[in-house]
Amino acid sequence: MSPDLLTHLRGDPVLKPYLVGVDASPNAAGRAYVDAFYQVPWGEDATYVDEVARIVAAEKVNLVLPGSDPEAFSLAAGREKIAAAGAVVLASPVAVLDLIRDKQATYRALQVAGLRVPEHVCVASVDDLRSAISGFGYPRRSVIVKPVAGRGGRGMRVLVGSDEAPAAWIGGGAREKREANHATPEEMSKWFEDGALMVMPLLHAPVHDVDVFAIRGKAQAALVRRRFNPAGIPFTGNRIVSDPVIMKYCLEIAEALGLDALHDIDLMTDDQGRPCLLEVNPRPSGSVVAAHMAGFPIMASAIAETLGTPYPLKAPVRDIDVGMAPRAILMVKAADLS
Question: Which domain of life is it from (predicted)?
Answer without folding.
Answer: Bacteria
